[in-house]
Amino acid sequence: MLAGVTLKAFLRDTSGATSIEYALIASGISIAILGTVTIVGGKVLAMFTTVKDALN
Q1: Range of the domain at 46
Q2: Would you say residue 29 lies in a domain?
Q3: Which of 15, 31, 32, 44 has its CA 20 to 30 A from that of 1?
Q4: Within-domain flag for 1
């Protein structure tokens, strides 16, 4: 009987939901930053290569 009460209390407890939501938000932001850096990094590399070739 005690396990049934504990399981019900566990299922009603939402205190960990906030930390999970924050973790999902942080991972989404990290993915967005990684994608942006990848795209911009390629363009910056191409720009510096063009400048290097023009100086040679």
Answers
A1: 16-55
A2: yes
A3: 15
A4: no
